[in-house]
Amino acid sequence: MERENPSNAAVGVMVPTAEQLGADEAADVRHSGSTWRYLLVKAGGSAVSLLMVVVLGFFAFRVLPGDPVALLTRGRAITVDQINQLHEKFGLDRPILVQFWDYLVGLFTGDLGTSLVYQRPVTELMGNFIGPTVLLMSVSMVLTVSLGIWVGQKAAWRRGKWFDKSATWLSLFFWSMPTFWFGLLLLLAFSGTGIFPSSGMVTVGTNYTGFAYVLDVARHLVLPVIALSIASYAQYVLIMRSSLLEELGQDYLVTARAKGLPEDQVRRRHALPNALLPTVTMIFLQLAGLIAGAVTVETVFSWPGLGYLTYRAIQGPDFPVLQGTFVVFSSIVIIMNFFADILYRVIDPRVRAA
Prior knowledge:
By secondary structure, the chain is mainly α. It has 13 helices and two strands; from the N terminus they run ββααααααααααααα. The protein is 74% helix and 1% strand.
């Protein structure tokens, strides 16, 4: 219960009592403790997931049938001694637990092993291939997030009209299409037309520099970005539309309109910030889908990224490269999920109160 401070009674200022200050401080301490406990639980869960990925990434590829050295040297005139030397060189002649220990030690020192096919360190290989993947995923994320949110909120605000119906129908259609299938359709549609290149990152035989190089890469980027983005775009449209429709019936929007605010301000200042909560979380979770899609899209369009490197490693099979890409892709997904949990607690008071 609030008491009026005698020194401020004349001006009618209400100040908190000592009991209230103590209660507020106690609430702050409980909230701080709850936040740290929440972060520790989420960080612990992420660490356990990472450990499982490392263990699974090592043993899953070891149980595959066939000897990797025999598969790599098939069709070649090679002696038994040479095969044994290759086993010794790649450490495949040692007990499985010893190989696992060396693998763990290598992970902590940034050594992911040596590629059986390329005969180069896996870390160096991934460093050469990660740039095109980052470029492809970044452009795709920017396009899908901006277009998906814009179209989704417009469709919800114009519920039942032609824009809403056409946007929803197209989104459902795009969402139902497999990424690799849509990529193949794009290849069939544009191969031989000369409008957009259907493979690679730059035109073979050219030495473009400066703006000409950027333009050449952008032309090669068009089809892979469309193939990778189409399903993600549809998800953003549908989730944004659904979230905003739930907000349209809330009392605070009725109050905002009663104050005389224009419809555009009611949408931008009041409805959209609340409707964005599920969409913001989805941005982080969507990375998992983009990584999976990048493997197929880069394979279809021969885009020289980590997905294409993974596809080439499967053909080997190149176990060290497969292990490296598996651990890196899985770690990115786990880390993004951790950030999504933290962000959701920051922007949603209902999660903080739970």
